[in-house]
């Protein structure tokens, strides 16, 4: 259940950002969560509901961009969609691949009342 | 400006995968943050890593599911090599000091971290543990993580090496079921090989699966009960220790 730690980190980051802009509320929060980042979205949603209570994010609308997994084959240089970390290159079958996207875990933006 | 794609309020000719529910000018302020959610942990991990490097301490994060034999592996290693190397151990468990007591009995310096309900160690916990330990330069620090093949994968502690331990009493498809841990590890130890005649575990399959997830993963098979394969692990360990300048 590391999702709870992740949500608590988001609350901390967002609280600090809001404070630096003298905001007392956050209306909207935008997150990037990659499909290979190791986050289980059901657990994340559950943790979110609990962890944002009585915080500045309690009433914030949440937008999550799920970033699809992409990898680059180091043997034949094919770029391909990676659904699982154990997926091999669809062209040559090699597993010597570099993950190009899908590992993201990022707080992108906040919408604050003016 | 749109925080997702950087487009301005008057330049909306291109396609969007996201909607623009809130545009500037309606009394709201959009703040581009662009911060990694784990950045605080990662910064503390880098601080730990710098401390370890400055003192030439080899820090190894030991991860596995509960019961794979991490503590037994440490007990045997510490006993066998204590005349050759300086060791220290950080034990992570939700409750009890049982593991720390076992390590203490080998005569090794040990600190126990109890995470309570927490399912993993993080860099902040390790930072505080290290502050109280007076680690010797040119030593080896084992950080035994909470037994869990999922959550500890995401948290860098500042270690140089991450060793994942699986045992032959588990399924040989563990690497496929828990790919994040095998993807982020540098060494895989297959423990309890003395039990192979009694279980269905297919070593070749387990290795194949592990290398599917991480082709660079080094793999050592051993039994800390019989001692078989331990010399290979000791050779690996000694090869990783940087010689003092």
Mean pLDDT of chain A: 95
Rg of chain A, Å, rounded: 17 Å
User: So how many helices of chain B?
Assistant: 8
Total beta-strand segments of chain B: 8
How are the strands of the largest sheet of chain A arranged?
2-1-6
Portion of residues in helices of chain A? 25-40%
CATH topology of chain B: Rossmann fold
The level 1 CATH classification of chain A is Alpha Beta
Characteristic terms for this protein:
heterodimer, A: alpha+beta, three-stranded mixed β-sheet, B: 245 residues, alpha/beta, Rossmann fold, 8 strands, 31% helix, globular
Q: Please, could you describe this protein's structure?
A:
The complex is a heterodimer of chains A (114) and B (245). Chain A is 26% helix and 31% strand. Chain A is an alpha+beta fold. In chain A, the strands form two sheets. A three-stranded mixed beta sheet of chain A has the order 2-1-6, with helices on one face. Chain A has a three-stranded antiparallel beta sheet with strand order 4-3-5, with no helix packed on it. In chain A, helix 2 (41-51) links the parallel strand 1 (28-34) and strand 2. The N and C termini of chain A lie far apart (36 Å). With 245 residues, chain B is α/β, with parallel strands linked by helices. Chain B is built from eight helices and eight strands. In chain B, helix 1 (39-54) packs parallel to helix 4 (123-131). Strand 6 (105-113) of chain A pairs antiparallel with strand 1 of chain B, so a sheet runs across the interface.
